[in-house]
Specification:
Elements: H1 18-36, H2 43-59, H3 64-84, H4 90-112, H5 117-130
Helix pairs in contact: 1-2, 1-4, 2-3, 3-4
Length: 131
């Protein structure tokens, strides 16, 4: 199996991807927490999400293997950050972990060619509603 499974995810990086939506929600949660508690920034989660987005937007099209690997590392960092960042409470951590898992679902589908539940739901039911 080649890595990544798709040289350009769905042929369009900026098409609707729940990878992007998950990371956007995650960054919004980080920005809100950043605003609520100055000098106690969620740097690990924020930096990891930005690294994942950089891999998706700037690398994947030109260097598919590097872009996919950077995305995987970035999303893994967000999930680790959700586990180890305890000062913001359980609800924030759960939201960040859920958003990270949404992004991971799409990423595993495009990078490794694995069947994932949210991608299956999107292609089986939700895509038909939009058409």
């Amino acid at each position: 199996m080649p890595f990544p499974a798709e040289p350009v995810p769905d042929g369009a990086l900026f098409a609707p991807h729940h990878f992007l939506y998950g990371l956007y929600l995650l960054l919004f949660a980080c920005a809100k927490r950043w605003d609520d508690r100055p000098h106690e920034e969620p740097l690990l989660v924020t930096a990891s999400a930005l690294v994942a987005l950089f891999g998706w937007v700037h690398l994947w099209r030109y260097y598919p293997a590097t872009g996919a690997a950077v995305c995987l590392l970035g999303v893994a960092g967000t999930l680790v950050g959700a586990l180890v960042t305890t000062r913001y409470g359980r609800r924030w951590r759960a939201f960040v972990a859920a958003a990270g898992l949404v992004a991971l679902d799409d990423l595993l589908s495009h990078a490794l060619g694995l069947w994932t539940p949210l991608d299956w739901l999107w292609t089986t039911y939700l895509l038909d509603l939009l058409a």
